[in-house]
């Protein structure tokens, strides 16, 4: 140690304090950078003088040579960090699930005065009004218009669900591009980080950038990573590498080549290097795929089921009636072709007969054919008229006699033999309105009677316009559980079925909201922990600022004193 | 725990966000008056409300059906009342005409009035509600009876079918009476009486036979009026039941979905205070740092 070494100690101290002030300044500058992790200049006493050895003269030793900066380190808890990455994936999943289900709720548009439920209610009302005034064309028109409204409201919901599904596929290709962008940046960062680490320095800010990119990636898709000895972050999803060292492997969306639907759905995520399809299990993309492949299909499927049942049951009842001209009812809705690749809702339409501008309204079958528990009548499509009294009397032994009279009670026909329950009798009306058993071939039959049990009633072969009973029966299809018996909707009415769809969307959406809220809390807690450790505290940095400044001043004073020593020495000369 | 500036800012923002969210929920309740806007707000309640809405809608329709049924019954009742008057008058005339002191010419002039009464009865049988003939069964566009060009009446043109109205879940009521039962025999009898009186050969005894028929007509119209009266009484009961039901369901619906405004306003006021407090504390905390004290 000589007198000049004091200058070195002072100089080192000045440099170290100044560099520490730089680090503090860097911290202060990044106080509001969310991705920034606090850095710390680690002070270390520099190598002492002298090295122990035999040649050393006696006396106290070793002498310190001052201070130096060992490293500038990043203050980071890697365990919390990896938890944040994991929870970010789940958070991304529920964020998108919540948003998607909320969108479905908006699409269903319930409770409101313009959704499917209201349309059905209005249709119901108009059918009731028609049953009160079967001969009123205005009432018939309301039935047709409200039926169109029901179709429109079904199709509007269905179209929106389909649009939503397509928009998910667009999201998917955007997300693939974003992932590719991120992984490419990460690969570049890997390259720089490895070279800086190789030179023995800490690439703190680059590591921050890479962590931030990895977090963005985690939000989109479930990824795993490990760091190799050189400092490369190797990233993979579902076992497929996305980043390896300085190489990035792209994802792309692809449609199914077997799929002939137009527009062709680019609905699959492909790892381009291996050609493998990737099915993410977490992150936003997984939520989109679940939404698209499970939820939307499920709800659309149920709505279609409902529409199909409505069409089938409505047509069945409509055919059981007769129209304004006494002609048997045909189909009201176009029957659903289940072999078509169009959905039931897309096929929803009124038949051309009902839509017909001139005669369509007359074709609505509001009238109810005479069907009773003890005698059923089938006019076999013939246009008949006349009023008769039918009397079925018990002949004992489970047999019945059948007699038919005109409305004045004059006997027209007595069946020659006894009948048992369920027997059908072929009858014919002659020119003067008398009923007789047909003698000729069966195809000349005018109508048939099926006898069920004893009783007496008037039957009318006229299909009078004042009968609105079938319109009533049609209305009842919507709110009766009996109407859906034997269909996929069994156990609930059509209306009730729709309510269960709304409830299940609501319940799932509500669950997604809760899951997202929970996930937010978990993530927030982790982020608080992370910021607690790695965040910049201005108070702390201010204190450091004063600390380093004072050290700097003290070191400068030390140099001045050393200089004075030198001065004293020089004056001797 | 080490607390950093960004933590404080983030926490403060989170809390502000939460408070804002609560404020928004309450605001929505206040401005819409409803406890929920979306199915996810309360899935079961939404379904219940939809159900109540359909029930109210159906109830509304049943009340409309009921009003129509009442119209139909009232018009039927007044037609029957007028018919009663007609046959009463016919009965008086019959009794008068059975008097042996009357000459054939006297009877002929009575016959003219009987013919008038018969035509009046035919007219009454052609009563319409809107465009519908109420006594024609379901052949509502056909007149039940007509008087043809030669002055003879044409037999019943309607059918015997019922017209019924759906007045509540599973409650149907037949509202019509058919002309064949209510009018046909009486018009027929008046027609025969007219022929008898107009023949010029009828004596008192010939006419006396008809008094029984006229008595029967009077009592049958009275019976029919009693039937209609009974039905009207029933519609009245149904109406009050439907009205009570409507109030009941509306109450349930309101209980299910309407926000308690007093409560919401109080809560809103409280949330507002909390929000202001968090804003104020945020503003104070964020300003303070060691920076302020270093010169």
Low-confidence stretches of chain B: none
Shape of chain A: rod-shaped
Helix percentage range of chain A: 40-55%
> What is the beta-strand fraction of chain A?
15-25%
Please characterize this protein's 3D structure.
The complex is a heterodimer of chains A (573) and B (295). Chain A is of the alpha+beta class and 573 residues long. Chain A contains eleven helices and 20 strands. In chain A, the strands form six sheets. In chain A, strands 13, 14, 15, 16 and 20 form a five-stranded antiparallel β-sheet that branches. In chain A, strands 3-4-5-6 form a four-stranded antiparallel β-sheet, covered by helices on one side. A four-stranded antiparallel β-sheet of chain A has the order 12-19-17-18, with no helix packed on it. The radius of gyration of chain A is 44 Å and the shape is rod-shaped. The mean pLDDT of chain A is 88. The longest helix of chain B is centred in the first third of the chain and has 55 residues.
Write out key terms for the chains shown.
heterodimer, A: 573 residues, 11 helices, rod-shaped, B: 295 residues, two-stranded antiparallel ribbon, two-stranded antiparallel sheet
What is this structure's SSE topology?
The complex is a heterodimer of chains A (573) and B (295).
Chain A: H1 5-29, E1 39-45, E2 67-74, H2 78-108, H3 116-132, H4 137-198, H5 204-220, E3 224-227, E4 233-237, E5 240-244, E6 247-248, E7 251-254, E8 268-271, E9 276-277, H6 283-319, E10 321-322, H7 344-347, H8 352-355, E11 367-368, E12 375-378, E13 387-396, E14 399-406, E15 411-414, E16 419-420, E17 424-429, E18 435-436, E19 447-451, E20 455-460, H9 469-479, H10 494-534, H11 538-572
Antiparallel strand pairs in A: 1-2, 3-4, 4-5, 5-6, 7-8, 8-9, 10-11, 12-19, 13-14, 13-20, 14-15, 14-16, 17-18, 17-19
Helix pairs in contact in A: 1-11, 2-5, 2-6, 2-10, 3-4, 3-9, 4-5, 4-6, 6-9, 6-10
Chain B: H1 5-32, H2 43-97, H3 104-125, E1 128-129, E2 132-133, E3 146-147, E4 153-154, E5 164-168, E6 171-174, H4 179-198, H5 204-257, H6 261-287
Antiparallel strand pairs in B: 1-2, 3-4, 5-6
């Amino acid at each position: 140690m000589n007198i000049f070494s004091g200058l070195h100690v002072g100089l080192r101290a000045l440099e170290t304090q100044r560099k520490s002030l730089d680090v503090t300044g860097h911290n202060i500058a990044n106080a509001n950078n969310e991705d920034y992790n606090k850095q710390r200049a680690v002070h270390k006493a520099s190598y002492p003088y002298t090295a122990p050895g035999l040649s050393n003269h006696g006396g106290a030793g070793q002498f310190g040579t001052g201070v130096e900066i060992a490293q500038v380190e990043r203050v980071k808890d890697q365990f919390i960090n990896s938890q944040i990455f994991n929870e970010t994936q789940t958070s991304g999943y529920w964020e998108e699930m919540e948003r998607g289900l909320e969108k479905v709720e908006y699409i269903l548009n319930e409770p409101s005065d313009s959704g499917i439920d209201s349309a059905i209610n209005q249709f119901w009302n108009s059918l009731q009004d028609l049953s009160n005034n079967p001969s009123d064309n205005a009432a018939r028109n309301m039935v047709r218009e409200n039926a169109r409204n029901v179709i429109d409201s079904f199709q509007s919901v269905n179209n929106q669900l389909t649009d939503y599904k397509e928009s998910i596929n667009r999201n998917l290709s955007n997300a693939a591009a974003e992932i590719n962008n991120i992984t490419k940046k990460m690969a570049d960062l890997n390259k720089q980080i490895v070279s800086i680490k190789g030179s023995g320095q800490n690439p703190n800010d680059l590591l921050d950038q890479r962590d931030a990119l990895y977090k963005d990636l985690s939000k989109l898709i479930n990824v795993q990573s490990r760091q190799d000895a050189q400092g490369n972050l190797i990233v993979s999803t579902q076992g497929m590498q996305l980043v390896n060292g300085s190489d990035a492997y792209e994802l792309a969306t692809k449609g199914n080549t077997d799929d002939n639907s137009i527009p062709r759905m680019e609905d699959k995520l492909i790892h381009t290097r291996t050609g493998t399809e990737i099915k993410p299990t977490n992150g936003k993309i997984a939520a989109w795929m679940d939404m698209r492949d499970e939820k939307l299909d499920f709800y659309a499927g149920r709505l279609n089921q409902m529409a199909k049942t409505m069409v089938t049951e409505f047509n069945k009842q409509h055919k059981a009636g007769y129209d304004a001209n006494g002609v048997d009812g045909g189909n009201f809705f176009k029957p659903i072709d289940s072999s078509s690749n169009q959905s039931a809702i897309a096929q929803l339409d009124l038949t051309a007969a009902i839509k017909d501008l001139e005669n369509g309204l007359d074709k609505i079958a509001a009238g109810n054919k005479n069907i009773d528990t003890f005698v059923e009548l089938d006019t076999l499509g013939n246009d008949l008229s006349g009023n008769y009294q039918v009397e079925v009397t018990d002949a004992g032994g489970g047999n019945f006699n059948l007699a038919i009279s005109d409305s004045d009670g004059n006997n027209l026909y007595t069946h020659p033999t006894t009948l048992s329950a369920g027997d059908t009798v072929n009858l014919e009306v002659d020119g003067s309105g008398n009923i007789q058993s047909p003698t000729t071939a069966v195809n000349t039959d005018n109508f048939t009677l099926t006898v069920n049990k004893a009783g007496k009633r008037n039957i009318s072969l006229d299909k009078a316009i004042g009968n609105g009973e079938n319109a009533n029966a049609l209305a009842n299809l919507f709110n009766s559980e009996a109407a859906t018996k034997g269909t996929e909707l069994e156990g609930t009415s059509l209306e009730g079925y729709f309510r269960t769809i709304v409830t299940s969307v609501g319940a799932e959406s509500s669950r997604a909201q809760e899951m997202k809220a929970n996930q937010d809390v978990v993530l927030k807690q982790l982020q608080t922990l992370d910021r607690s450790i790695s965040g910049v505290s201005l108070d702390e940095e201010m204190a450091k600022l004063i600390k380093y400044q004072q050290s700097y001043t003290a070191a400068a004073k030390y140099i001045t004193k050393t200089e004075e020593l030198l001065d004293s020495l020089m004056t001797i000369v | 725990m080490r607390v950093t500036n960004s933590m404080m800012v983030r926490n403060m923002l989170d809390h502000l966000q939460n408070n804002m969210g609560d404020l928004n929920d309450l605001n929505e309740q206040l401005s819409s008056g409803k406890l929920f806007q979306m199915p996810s707000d309360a899935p079961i309640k939404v379904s219940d409300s939809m159900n109540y809405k359909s029930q109210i809608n159906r109830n509304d329709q049943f009340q409309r059906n009921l009003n129509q049924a009442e119209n139909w019954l009232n018009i039927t009742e007044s037609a029957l009342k007028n018919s009663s008057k007609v046959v009463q008058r016919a009965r008086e005339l019959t009794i008068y005409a059975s008097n042996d002191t009357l000459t054939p010419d006297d009877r002929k002039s009575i016959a003219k009035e009987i013919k008038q009464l018969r035509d009046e009865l035919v007219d009454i049988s052609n009563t319409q509600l809107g465009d519908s003939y109420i006594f024609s069964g379901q052949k509502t566009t056909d007149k039940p009876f007509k008087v043809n060009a030669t002055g003879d009446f044409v037999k019943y043109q309607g059918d015997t079918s019922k017209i019924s109205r759906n007045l509540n879940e599973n409650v149907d009521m037949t509202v019509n009476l058919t002309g064949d039962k209510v009018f046909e025999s009486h018009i027929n009898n008046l027609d025969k009486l007219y022929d008898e009186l107009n023949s010029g050969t009828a004596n008192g005894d010939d006419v006396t036979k008809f008094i029984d028929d006229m008595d029967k007509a009077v009592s049958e119209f009275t019976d029919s009026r009693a039937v209609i009266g009974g039905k009207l009484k029933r519609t009245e009961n149904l109406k009050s039941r439907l009205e009570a039901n409507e109030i009941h369901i509306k109450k349930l619906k309101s209980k299910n979905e309407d926000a308690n405004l007093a409560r919401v306003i109080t809560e809103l006021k409280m949330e507002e205070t909390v929000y202001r407090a968090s804003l104020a504390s945020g503003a104070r905390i964020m300003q303070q740092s060691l920076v302020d004290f270093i010169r």
